[in-house]
Amino acid sequence: MTSITTRQWLLNSRPTGAPILDGPDATFSLTTTTLPPLQPNQVLIRVKYISNDPAQRQWISTTVAPERFYLPPLSLGAPMKCSLLGEVVASTSTAFPPSTLVTSALGEWSEHVILDAAVCNPAPAADGGIAPTHFLGALGLTGLAAYYGTAIVAAAKPADTVVVSGAAGATGSMVVQIAKKLLGCARVVGIAGGAAKCAWVKGTLGADECVDYKAASFADDLAAATPDFVDVYFDNVGGEVLDLMLARMKMRGRVAVCGSMATYNAYEDGTRLRNWFEVVAMRLQLTGFVVLDWLHKAPETIAELVRAAQEGKIVLGDENEMVLETAFESKIWENG
Amino acid sequence: MTSITTRQWLLNSRPTGAPILDGPDATFSLTTTTLPPLQPNQVLIRVKYISNDPAQRQWISTTVAPERFYLPPLSLGAPMKCSLLGEVVASTSTAFPPSTLVTSALGEWSEHVILDAAVCNPAPAADGGIAPTHFLGALGLTGLAAYYGTAIVAAAKPADTVVVSGAAGATGSMVVQIAKKLLGCARVVGIAGGAAKCAWVKGTLGADECVDYKAASFADDLAAATPDFVDVYFDNVGGEVLDLMLARMKMRGRVAVCGSMATYNAYEDGTRLRNWFEVVAMRLQLTGFVVLDWLHKAPETIAELVRAAQEGKIVLGDENEMVLETAFESKIWENG
Predict the structure, then answer these.
(1) Among partner residues B65, B282, B290, which is closest to A280 by beta-carbon distance?
(2) How far apart are CA B132 and CA B149, in angstroms?
(3) Is B154 exposed, middle or buried, given 0-12, 13-18 or 19+ CB atoms closer than 10 A?
(4) Cβ A271–B276 below 8 Å, yes or no?
(5) Which residues are in the Alcohol dehydrogenase-like C-terminal domain (chains A, B) (predicted)?
(6) Between B210 and which of A8, A191, B109, B201 could a Cys-Cys bridge form, CB atoms 3.0 to 4.6 Å apart?
(7) CA triplet A30, A32, A33: central angle to 5 degrees?
(8) Residues of chain B contacting residue A62, judged by C-beta atoms under 8 Å apart
(9) Helices A218-225/A239-246 angle, 10° precision
(10) In this complex, is the C-beta atom of B64 within 8 Å of any C-beta atom belonging to chain A?
(11) Residues 6 or more apart from A221 whose CB is under 8 A from it?
(12) Does B84 touch chain A (CB under 8 A)?
């Protein structure tokens, strides 16, 4: 095998607010490096797609102490981590011969990457309206987070009213559909930013209602959309939306805490909860979770989601664009 | 029965910050009123002791909507509610003849009060170092809240490290002892305000450590007192202490949310949680609770606590003074 050079994005600087695109403090820097020879049971992958998820914002800088974070922290100067989908172009693994399509949750923002075969999976067959990229989103970690958070952590039941924030995003769009179409929840309400996203959440995903958090009337709209209050809140955003939602929960309501996008770029502000006493008065339960805890169930869950998509029960949106918009934009490229 | 007049404190104005002692906006006003004749199955009580608990601050004004509060809201102009201990001086109930000592969780800040016999209980025998007033505190609602929050909501186990805020208060002082002496928790750490309270929590109540939240070094002291992190946090105060504690919890730690005293007089500030993402990263579970949900177990629990006190396992402090200091001061009187 000839020596391979690749371009890759490195973590150059830890942002304290929004990621910085240019200049000496730019969050990422583009470099070209020569990859080492393959060790046994490794694959060289030509990357076709990389993921850009809200969770990645926490990987590059977070107020959580490194030893308390759910993954080893990304070092300064290291290639940015991501999920990827790519084609094996060289291999010392019998499991993944050249030309195999693979996915991995331990990819990098690189054109070529060397991974241990143990952290790769064969890319599932993509047909019946399913695109390979869906395995980086709706059928990847974000979709799985939606599934476990809704079905297990919050234990949504058919009689329940479910609200999800970030409803047009990678995770939220699946929560809406898992709650409404797979679990048969009585009422599902999305929260999203802007009329276009709200129309998509209602019209395409099938939410009973979707409330625009950018509207001046948001608090009133949210109350109007939840007249009988809420059994389950799937929280992707934290911040003011969480605060308002605490006052919309039913007695013994459950909050699945998946993320707090509203504060990733504003640590010092924190999440200010004027309605915190609602937790006491209404006996609420808030439970944080990380999708990695259920990866042993992932194959069966992905199979269930694929089947639901092929039967037309759920829609697998091209949600990456929306995720980029809500989390951070950077000069990454598509190498497809 | 001759007509009885009584002095009583009425709710005159709902405070938005600290209760107001004087002037036209005073939170409470003293009045004299004539009580009506007894209806069947009622008692006229000469009040000996009334309670003044942190929870009462929420009864007189709270940001929680009235229909979402755990008790009917106290109306303006109504007598202030409390727990009481008093002596029956007239009765139309065979259960409570005159000269019976009774307690009730539905008392009033009045010298005399008429209550339905159904909401009264015979005052338990007070001996072996137990004073009647303990049934308004350590052996009343605050002590029961400590018990159910620690043993049931947080489900503290012998191997656990338990931290409690407001550790010198009515509830917290019992949490310390229930965790350490009754449940046998491995390590119990209190948080209290000032060296004197901390010394009492350690020396008298038996906490392994007590951290002074008023010290400039509080955050460092709290970390030093919890070197192996925390399984259970019993939260009486919310606010900054809760924020710091989120970063001291172990993986899958449990927070029993009993109150948020830090914000009762400062609604607009709310509880600002910079460490909210710890809930996700460490898979924390926060559960709000109200002691009223377990009143059916109260007789057996009080009997257990009385036994523990008589055996010298736990100390029943005169915690009312501390509660007054932390919650609010008003011109109430002792009529004993």
Answers:
(1) B290
(2) 24
(3) buried
(4) yes
(5) 171-305
(6) B201
(7) 130
(8) 277, 281
(9) 40
(10) yes
(11) A211, A212, A215
(12) no
Query: Residue written as tokens 């605050």?
Result: B142
Asked if A70's CB is within 8 angstroms of B278's CB, the reply is no
Nearest CA in chain A to B251: A68
Nearest Cα neighbor of A56 from A121, A175, A140, A179 is A140
Cβ atoms of B299 and B140 closer than 8 Å? no
Give me the tens of pLDDT residue by residue for chain B, a chain 336 residues long.
568 999 999 999 999 889 998 899 999 999 999 999 999 999 999 999 888 888 898 899 877 888 888 888 899 999 999 999 999 999 999 999 999 999 998 999 999 999 999 999 888 777 777 888 888 888 999 999 999 999 999 999 999 999 999 999 989 999 999 999 999 999 999 999 999 999 999 999 999 999 999 999 999 999 999 999 999 999 999 999 999 999 999 999 999 999 999 888 887 788 899 999 999 999 999 999 999 999 899 989 999 999 999 999 999 876 443 333 323 233 343 333
B274 touching chain A per CB within 8 A: yes
Element (H, E) at A90: strand A81-91
Residues 6+ apart with CB under 8 A from B152: B294
List the Cα angle A197/A200/A206 in 5-degree steps: 130
Question: Which residues share a beta bridge with B271?
Answer: A273
Instruction: List, as ranges, residues 212-271 from B with C-beta within 8 Å of A.
Output: 238, 243, 247, 257-260, 263, 267-271
For residues B117-136, b (16+ Cβ closer than 10 Å) or e, as one string?
Answer: beebbebbebeeebbbbbbb
pTM for the structure as a whole = 0.90
Nearest CA in chain A to B248: A68
Q: Any chain A CB within 8 A of the CB of B292?
A: no
